[in-house]
Structure formats: structure tokens, C-alpha cells
Model the fold of this input.
Amino acid sequence: MSSPGPEININPKEQDFTNAKSYLLTTSLETGINLYDHLSKVLTKILDERPNNVVDVFEDISKDTKRSKFTSQVDTVQDKIDQSTEVALAQIQKKLFSKGEGEEAEPEQDEDVETPLPNLMELCFFFEQAGIGLNREEIIRVWLALKNLVDTHPLQHVRFWGKIFGTDQNYYIAEVEYRDNEEEEAEEDEEPEEHQEEETEKEADEGEEEEQEEDDTPKPDFKPPPTIPKEGPKQGANKKTYFVCNDPGKPWVKLPTVTPSQIQLARQFKKFLTGRLDAPVVSYPPFPGNEANYLRAQIARISAGTHISPLGFYQFDEEEEEEEDAEARDNFVENLDFEGIPIRDLVEPSLANWVHHVQHILPQGRCVWWNPVQKNEDDYEDEDEEEEREEPDEPEPEQGPPLLTPLSEDAEIGNIAPWTPKLSSSLVPQYAIALMHSNLWPGAHAFASGKKFENVYIGYGHKYNQENYSPPAVPAVQEEFPSGPEITEAEDPTPEEEAALRAAKQEAAEAQEEVEEAEEDEDEDD
Amino acid sequence: MESESLHLNIDYVGSSGIILSPEQKAALQTSLVILQSENKFSKVYFWGKILGIKDDYFIAQGVGKDELEGRKTFYSKDCIHWGLLPPATRQMRDTSKLAKGRFTGDPSFEFEHSETKKVGEGEEAAEEEETINIKEEDRLASVIADIDEDVRIVPRAAFIKTPSAHVIQNRSFEGLTVSESAKLCNYMHFRHPKLLLEKSLLQRANLDKAIDFLDSLEEDIPKGSWSLQFERGSGLLTLRSLLWQGYVFYHIPGTRKFGSVYVGTGEKNLDLPFML
Done:
């Protein structure tokens, strides 16, 4: 016990002061500093620096002081090289800007052959007049990436198709056409995979059969409708090949060809793309394939709906025209005599001066109709069951508008016009360009000026619908057995009927007994 | 997006397909300055564009001293002449939800919505058709108010609430770091808080009253209604709303630069739950 000593005679005022000071000196349990030291530091700082209107920024100064206490003067982390994603991407994109070795000698050769690379900056300029498109820097990067694509693949025609946003990453899409006969090599690489798939399916079937011998599970007699064959390269929906990449500078990935069933199913649901090509598409009805296939199907649908050109820019090849039917024409050539359509006519609300130059995709999912019945005819003879079945009616051939149909034929969306024509400038109309905005596929645009025109798509890749989406209903439950008399449950007999039956049985039994007895008697007699 | 640096900042949302033509940029630069001085705003924001069938609406908003209260909304079709939109009342917003389809581009256009209602009870019930007319100007004001309420966002701590309940820009905001900016909890809905008041006292205990006076994005329903992406590696963050497709927010980590703009059809994406 220490005695209070001389402090006992301090006056209460001083006592209060010491109490307050000791309270201020209490160290915080979390940060380890106390208010007394902190205040004195802050006040020193303020008196040293003497900022204007100090009362307004007092909180900030206090915060700064607290913060400066914690930052160590020597930071070992700071000396490390920053390997943020920003630097990593810059390293990738740096390659775009560097000229390849030995390339300097090449340009002379290139002058002979027409380069397939489009003048993207010029197109970007036109789109910018319209307030459509991407940043100029971004376009330059895409352009250089396209150049890379041209250098590494034998391409005849390249075009920047557009950009589709995903939830995690975005897709830049290039539309290309291979030089004649060059694509076949690329196609051959793909086919073996399909064979492999078939083989594995066969193996799987065999495996199942072995199991079935033991269990004898009933087999469904459901036969899937014949799969509609996909259109070959350079035909219909697979006329062009598409490459995608997530960032210009990253490798281009070739998208697989599209099958009719993929197009059919892609019409029935609406999903956001994620930005990863191998991501599964979880949807109802189930989609055959992953996101790469879904992306390809959407690209085919958008191209068919929104790729337009001024009337007369393309024309049918006159030589081919005589040979083929009018419906089957799927080739056209550039009209060299095309003079350009005056801008005023292009923005007319009738839209008769614009035509689709990509084939319409039929409900079947193909551009050229394929008859699902005719192929089955050989099978009929083999199987008796099928002959008994009703012969399916010859389906009506599906027909779409032929190639190079004017936009005036396009169907309206509810009561909304499918296209909005516009002039790029109302102030200087004599130098304006004509623009078309698609209302069916928001994000699809086209411009035309003189002999130049271009289409681009920048959006989420979904079709516009006035009504909200509702998923298709689940199909009705399949019948287990065909209903017939042998499996229909009979009504229970009433007690009267039972009594009558019992009486009848008894009578019959008695009669039987009598007969038997008589027989026995006869036997005994013998 | 603040109007004084519009021509620079609009480039940050260019990768989302939002660009202005040079003519529009020039016109906006001129007219927004006049708008600001005529209405004595302390700041004018370029809000975005609503695409119509025939014409588009350019939208600008002006604020006084308080950033959250008393915003005034203007629209223009040529970027030069601005018209004041009526403030969206609750009733206006409810009726304009009945209007379907795209904007036409004519502010005096009237959408018609007819409903069959049953009048009376039992056998006396008779069907009566009721037609509601919705003026496009009112619908425009309501949609803008809806978008502001649903998706207008700011980084955390970019705005503070003063003791006098004014919301002002935080002078000591230094931007989010790269790792902070990748988290949705560091973005706030710039509206009067709705969810914050429902939180328990325990949850609210650790909040900084000056900064955390808004709802955070983390609790948005459905999850995944925001698409968060880094452009240029981690040099630029873009947040796109999937609920209101066309709303884009950008922020450059480590700087005070942030902003948002809406360019779209003015239709809410009600299909969102099916699309994720």
C-alpha cells in the first residue's frame, strides 16, 4: 500500500485534469495509438502547414496522420516488378505492333495480290459519324489482329463482323472466306473427331446391350426424327467461316460449323454468353453443344437477318442464272457497274433500296430446304412395322424469301418497323451518310455512302421481342401402355351380382356332382 | 458522366459500343454549358441516350449543391435544344410500366393500354374495357427515374453524407484499388437507401455513417445481374447492368475517375432470370 503522499492536497480541478489526460492517453486495443499523441501530432501538422479553412479538412488531416503512421518507409513489395494483368495484356498486345522478322521484303509481292484485309479505319470513320462502333484505339488493335489472321491463314476475304458482349469476357468476331480448295484441308482435320464420336457411341451401345441380356429391360420403341444434315462448307448457313478472340492479340479460335438443330434450338431460348467458348450451355430445351456452338448459331441468325447492302451492289451471276432454278440461286457477284444510290433514296422509309445479301434461314435450320421423308424410303422395305404405320404426309417444302430481297419485304415486329433508316447528320446533309439500324436485332447497323457500305453488330446477341420470354412448356407425359380392353380395370360386381354368380356356381357344382354320382354308380355297376 | 470532361470520358465506355459522333460531341459541349448557366446548376451530367424507332432522346441531368436531391432531367433530340422533363411521380411510374414496346421518338405520342375489368359480383358481373393513355414524355421521365433507382451506381466513398444530411463529393476519395474494384460490395446504389434500413443493428454497427449511407450492390437480386469486367488488363473497370441493358459504369482503379452512361432502348430486361 503506497500512501498518496503529497498529492493528497492537489485541488479537485487538477485532479480532473489528470483524470482526463490519463483517459486520453489510454491506448486503443486495436491500433495501439492513443488520442493524446494523435491530437498533438495533428495539431503540430496543422500549425506547420497552416492550410486554409482548416476546420473543413480537419477529418482528412486526421485520417492522413493515422495512415502515415502505418505505411512503412521501406517497402519490399514496391521493389518487385508489377505483374498485374494490365502489364500481362500489354505484353501480349505488344506483339501486334511489332513487325515480324523478314517481313520488310514482302510488301512488294503483296502489291500484286489483292490483300484481303479491309480498310477498317475507313469503315470505323464512317461508323463514327453515325455514333456506332468502338473506340478508335480498339479498332486499330482489332485491325492488327485481323492482319495477323490474314498472315497465318490462306484467306480470300476477311471482314470484322462485330463484337458480342459476354458476362465475363467479350468476343471479337472475324468473318472469313478461305481461298478455293484451301479450306478442305482444314475441314479434314475436323471430320475424324466426328467418326470418333460415332465409334464411342457404338461402344456405349454395345456395352448397354450386354447389360440388357441380364436384366431384359424393355426398349423404347421411340425413334428420333431423322437428323437434318448440316450444310456443307461454303453453303447456306456455313457459307462463311468465323474466328473469335476475347482480346485483340490473343489467339483467334475457329468456330465449328453450325448444324440445323443448333439453329432450331438457339431460337427457343435466350441466354447470356459468358465469354468462355468451352462453357456449357445450360438451357431448356437442352442445346446440343457448348457455348462455341451457341455463339456460332447466333452469328448465323444475326447474319441472315441483318446483313444488307444497297440495291444493285451485288447481282446474280448471269451465266449461272440460266442453269439453275431461281430458288436455288445462292451465289452472287459484285456488280462492277454499280454507281451508288443517292443518299436520299437510301433513307427512304420504304427501304426498297436495300437488299439482304445473306440467305434466309428456314424454320428447319437450313437455308436450302431438305426433305426429311425422302431419305427414309429405303428403310421402309426392310422393316415391316414401318409399313403398317401411316405413311407420313409429304411435308410442305419450307420457303423463305430468295437472296437479294429488298428490306421492304421484312416482317414487322408487332407494330414496330424492322429497320430505322437515318441520316448521319441533319446539319450538313449534303455530306451525310445513310444509316440503317436494325430493330429486330438491336446492335446491328449498316451504313452506305457512295459505293461503300458495311455491316457491323455490337451487342449481346439476342433478338428483340416485344413480349417477354417464357420458356417452352415441358412436353406431356408419355403414355405407358396403349389403353385397351385387356388392361382396363373392370368395375367391381355388386353384392347382388356376386350372390347370383355364387348361386349359379353352386347350381353348376350340384349338377356336376349329380352327374359324377351317376357315373360312379355306373362304375360301381360295372 | 460529368459534362465538362464528356469528350474525354466517353472514350472509356467506347468498348461497350457507346460512342458519340463528332457532331454530337461538339453540340453537347456547347449546349450543356448553356444549360448549366441558365439553370444555375453546380454540375451537369450527361446521362445517356434512349433509342427510339424514329428518333433518339439525349438526356442530361443537372444538380445543385446536393448530389442526390433535386436532380432535374432534361431531354433533347438534336443535342442543342433541351426540354425539362416533369418529375416522375409514383403514379406516373406505375402507369408507364403498362406501356409496351419501344419509344417512338415523338414526345407527344400516346401509348394505349386497354384492360378488361370485371365490374360487379356474381351474375351481375360484366366486362368493361378500360383504356389508359400514356404520354411518351411521361414514360420517358418514368423510365429515367426507374433506371436511376435500379442501377445508378457510384464507387464506395466517392460521396459522403455531411452532418447536415447533404450528399456531396468526397474530397478525400482516392479511387478503389484493383482488388477492391473487383468486388461488388465496393459499389453503392446512388439512390435513397432501401435495404440499409432493413439491416439489423449488429450489421450496421461497423458501418461508417458518413460513407455507408447507401445500399451496396452485393445484395442485388438476382445475383449476377451485373457483368464486371476489366478492360485493358486491369486498367479500366466496366460494370454493365444486365437488368437495364445499355447501362455502363466505368472506373479507373486508383484514380478519382468514374462515371456511368445509359444508351439503350429504355426497356427493362424482364427475361433476366432465364438468361443467367
Summary: Chain A touches chain B through 51 residues (CB under 8 Å).
